[in-house]
Amino acid sequence: MSHPPAQRIYVLDTSVLVHDPTALFHFEEHDVCLPSAVLEELDAAKEGLSEVARNARQVSRFLDGLLTGHTPGSLEDGVPLGSGAPGEPSGRLFFETEGHGRGDSAILAAAARLREALPPTPVLVSKDINLRIRAQVAGIAAEDYESDRVIDDVDLLPTGVDAIPAAAWDRARTHERGYRVPVPQDTVWRVNQCLYAEDGFEGVVRGFEDDQAILAPVTDFREHNAVWGVRARNREQNFALHLLMDPEVDLVSLLGAAGTGKTLLTLAAGLAQTMDQGRYREVIATRATVAIGEEIGYLPGTEEEKMTPWMGALMDNLEVLSAPDSGLGGDWARAATADLLHSRVRIRSMSFMRGRTFLEKFVILDEAQNLTAKQMKTLITRAGPGTKVICLGNIGQIDTPYLTESTSGLTYVVDRLKDWPHSGHVTLRRGERSRLADYASDVL
């Protein structure tokens, strides 16, 4: 193999390919090498219906397509990964076949052999931080795979809530839909962005006319407009309820730490629009089944019964919402209300979402920070006519291996849909659980 001086060769670990099957085509003019150990691990991972198995099979299909028409002897010079046209890679794919077996040690050994044989120093690319550490200790250059990074810094994610500068608010004029406010210089406002002024005004951007934003006042859900018995306790919660209740907003993303009210507000809005307004047929809830501690093994029962232990947070909030407003009826009334709500709130497993279409449903994707960008796309594209999708999560609490704050599917959705006029986003910052929870989150 010969390479131009500026060209590099990247040795890909299995973790990169099962995380992103298209990784083969993301190295532009640089070459890519797959050790035989990686091919062995892909073969072992292909069985089953998990996301890893699907991705392993997709990588195999890509490799089969690349190798079609090539004779075994022609592989020494590599296989073109693309035409080199704009947007396509111009590098080549090589295979390292001297080693045997599987595992990190076999991949490290392959990278070491390439380092001795090739003029450009090979770089091992892996999502496995321990493998990268072992490579660097062995004198092999190693990097994380970052082509799936959505943004460089999660602090650049929009919060969805901004203050209106006093100078701009002073120049506001009335409009048939609310107010017309000049957009300040060096400021980016979007449709459905939530804005507030120092005098207590709270509104949402409905559109733009001649460098001016059209702001419509939001309903005050703090005092006289409770949603299924739930009232907003702060400004961000009020904005969140507005977006959740707005039929013009098809997708809402709510970010926030535990206790900020994401699940309670969402369930209350879903029940109000399903049971009272008849806007949706039922509430569908799902989440990624990622265990924090030890796995508890297989669970008996139906799909809904298997998912119930994973949906503990949702069920806790459903109990709060199912309590009757008064003490009349006692336990019987409570049980009847709970049965009625459970009949309209369906818990579904993410494993059976492919191929489905949700019509007139209020879909809640809980713990969405544990989903990849591909999984988020798969779920959101299930939405049919009249369906609203709510993505909830805390990107500071990711339990999925190989996902980070900047590569999470929740970050991906917030960033990619921020300019779509039928989406809304709010970051909830203030915890509203209890003084004990608030104090513990600060000092522990």
UniProtKB/TrEMBL annotation:
Q: What is this protein's name?
A: PhoH family protein
Where does the record locate the signal sequence feature?
none
Task: Give the family per the record.
Answer: Belongs to the PhoH family.
What Pfam families does this protein map onto? PhoH, PIN_4
Organism's domain of life? Answer: Bacteria
Question: Where are the membrane-spanning stretches?
Answer: none
**Its GO CC terms?**
cytosol
Q: Which UniProt keywords apply?
A: ATP-binding, Nucleotide-binding
Keyword Acyltransferase present in the record's keywords: the answer is: no
What positions does the domain PIN occupy?
Answer: 8-133
A GO molecular function annotation here is: ATP binding
